[in-house]
Task: structure prediction
Amino acid sequence: MREVLEGSHAVSEAVRLAKVQVMSAYPITPQTHIVEALSEFCEDGTMDARFICVESEHSAMAAVVGASTCGVRTFTATSSHGLALMHEMLHWASAARLPIVMAEVNRALGPGWNIWMDQTDSLAQRDTGWIQLYCENGQDVLDTTLQAFRLAEMVNLPVMVVLDAFFLSHTYEDIDVPDQKAVDRFLPPLSPRIQLSTQNPCAIGQMSPPAFYTENRHSIQAAMEQVQGRFENIQEEFEPVFGRKYAPLEAIECEDADVIMVMAGTAASTCREVISDLRSQGEKVGLLKLKMFRPFPTMLIRKILGDTQKVAVVDRNFSFGVSGIFAQEIKAALCNHDNHPPVFGYIAGLGGRDVTPDILKQVYHMTKTASFPKEDGVWIDLNN
Amino acid sequence: MIAKQKFFEEVPLSISRSKISTEVNKTGSWRFMRPVYDEKTAPCSVGCPAGEDIARIEMLASRKMFREAYETILKENPFPAVCGRVCFHPCENFCNRAAFDQPVAIPHIERFVGDTAIAAEYLVPRTPRVGSFANRKRVAVAGAGPAGLAAAYFLTRLGYVCDVFESENEPGGVLRWGIPAYRLPEDVLKNEINRIVSLGVTIYCKQPVNQDFLEQAKGRYDAVFMGCGYGRSLEMKIPGEAMAHDGLKFLHDTRKGQAACFHGTSAVIGGGNTAIDVARTLIRMGSKPILVYRRRRQDMPAFEHEVEMALKEGVRLKELAAPMRMKANMGDIVLMLQKMKPVESDTGGRAQVVPDGENTMSIKVEQVFTAIGAEPGRNWYVPPKKQDNILNLSHCAFLEDDLPMVFGGDLTNPIKSVTDAIASGKQAAMVLDTFFQRGRDAIEERLAACRVGNGDALSMEIYTEGERKNRNSHVVSFEEINTDYFSRADREIPPLLSPDESAASFSEIEGTFAEDSLEKESQRCFNCGICNDCDNCRLFCGEVAVSSDGGERRVNMDYCKGCGICVVECPRNAMTLEEEKI
Amino acid sequence: MQEIRFHGRGGQGTVVASVVLAKAFFKAGYHVQTFPVFGVERRGAPVEAYLRLDADKKILIRSNVYTPDHVVVQDIKLLQNVDVTKGLKPGGWILLNAPGIPEHPERFSEYRLAVVDAGKIAIGHKLGTRTQPIINTAMIGAFARIMEMPPMEAIAEAIEKEIPVKPRQNILAAKQAYEEVQMIENQG
Result:
């Protein structure tokens, strides 16, 4: 049924429909509305689930790691400093191969204190072994959360569903909330491959000596390598039921584009409008929307961007001392491609700063008129 | 749709998971320290003259295991209901709980257990030695007071045949005749004496021990225990003393129901427990007693608690006043008193007093009672001095002779209390048993091995079961208690008559704990050094190496890695971490 | 696409007003998008919320509203320290909660002014207190009148769903404001 729903509640509804059994979370703006709704679902019996209250995000992740190890479907949500505090347990979840799903609301890290949109928090966790999926609107959030459970449980890796603070988490829009029967057709109950059992006791997460550790890491990578294919496969299951489908990377007007703009999150939605404006003015511009950041779809990136003239990456994040993180990754993906295009990096929209259509148009024109990037990252909209 | 997955290869899944149970990893090989269940001595036990295993008694009481608590007391003391009432409880001065909030009300718990045993008619448990001692030697016991009865009790449990000879018409000694009924009701005493008789002890009343008896005893008995007590009051040696009543005799006659009733003002001379008992008895008869004491209140040998109760009931106190003479005056007695003053004493202890110049005064009373102390009734009741064959011990003296004799009770005890008398009887039993089995030279060493902790009290449990089975000599200090496991709680107070009510009759002043008070109070005990099955050792063990099978705890050394967490988390120091032996 | 900007104070239900309107417009067949300008404001502080409506197309743009078609001002005293006309397209509506026409209406000559005494209406329906009347539903009713959308049934339905306290009185307040709002089109 279509209804006007807040982005946060799109997550909550998806978690309800996924029949998650154990949740644990610690509240932090702007994640709060997600878990408030879920705790109410547990309280009023809408969900047959346990909500474990904890004293920190580290404990929240530890709690769902424990629950997941026991073979139940689990969920948590956090943001910014909460995610940073979870860092250690993120490694635990992935290396223990637990299919945990987490909603992560992109928010800036302090100090100075800032509760608004910024991608640096989730991107700083790129090496933890979590699958990362970025969303651009409320429908995307709901659908991606549902798919995240399917994906996580297929490959036994945890999935982070990433959504923009406020521009997505606190924005109401019309969203199709599927009914339970449809979701049940798509998402079977969890049949865990890892499950602690009193019948067959064992130790999990024990010492992994040099003779085993390398193989263990390689096994995680081998699973990661299957994620893109599995994700595409999931769309074949999803589309017949729900009438929508998603791609790890979405290329919009890219075939004949001289400049392809690359970004993730709500900025990509705004950019769709900008592309269509610019196209109507005769500009040969395309948009590559990054949905899947981990695993990074390198081959697909080369295919879409390899033969264009210029690439302009908009990063709402920054790695101090280098550049925007998406730009780094795009460059790394392209560098072994013959005659790859120059990659222009732009830093915009940090800490809740708006990424407006005018800014995106400015990025396009700066890229179009420059022959080669003079610096790794150009800071847009910088007040002096 | 799920079937589509089959087109994919299986997703690799390799995690650090043990292939088999963790039981294969015998972490015991990591161990260089070893936890052992090692029960220790609670400080209260050291303070108890009878060396009772108080921490265990409280633990059993807190779990409502009253029969077991009673049997634990009976290992060291046949008189729980009596001592629960009349003991001056030095144990409480040693209680570790005092450093936390207030000491545990140990005598009240003992009294509850003793009264429960009487009400439920618990029997004395059989011990292995009873009746099994092949050569059934016979011991004559002179005096059926607490020392004599205790000696007979312990000797009988060790397999001896005991006959007790008592000059009075009923047994009990000071318990029967010296302690007023408001502190120790007669039926409580009778019940506990009957228990001793039930073991096979024969008590012959109106049979005073004299020299002829001892001559005849040589053939019939193998040893004699002398526990005749201090039956003769000391004299003041002042003019007119003949007009005074003997306090001890007054108490005795009162308990026999033969005392005259005294009215008007009475002077009671003395500062010991007997003087207090006389004064409080007089109050109950309707007299107005004045205690006359030559030193100050804080110097009185009477127990402070008793003095306080006496004053609350209306006894007046005249300190620093020494009787000079007594004179009859129109049916009254005028008592002349020398005022005294304290002088600094270098030796410590009680203050010395000297006459305060010519300062005198006189009081007019209707009768005077003396209670300035007592001595043995006969000179030969006490052990001969400076004789080579005398062995002087902490609570008795052993005389090796044709008829070996042990002198005990007040005759030898430095502290003349009921519980010290019981300790004396117990020591005498150990002395004679060791003498008969191993000879005189073994006595001192054997007794030293039975000491409770580092004190003078001796444990019959250690004597008979050996090897300090349940309590090694380490005395648990407050610092060794893991107080994280305890919360503050007020000490329970037993039901108590008001001073007005108590002064009006010979009814018992203090009541026995109600069961909920008993439960709360016994739970306050730290149970220093003994296991109360709290299970912390098992719960905290990271290797699940501790098992508890029918209450018996065991550490599986295949898996114990010697981390010591069980020892640290034991709230009461009932475990010890030892170096692994090579 | 139309963009509406709400000005209010923390505690006045400004965000709720924008959500109720969004739901009502959605009922009427529009694509909608609404979100608050989120800060760390507390009761009394000036706040803003945005509402985008599109009868035909899905709304793609997700940045803040800078050039609104209309503005709703929930408290006339905001005029002292907030430029409510910033970016407002000429000819756009300014819906003002005020007891009467404000002084110097000529300053709004580029726009169309509508005034409703939402405070009086709210108090009349016992919504909130005399010092803190709950005026957002009255403002919604007035807005529906000047836009001629959405229909009152859709508003009533959205109020039922979104406002659990006194929904009936809130609907009546919306209806009364719908009737009473004064539209002053060419005040120049």
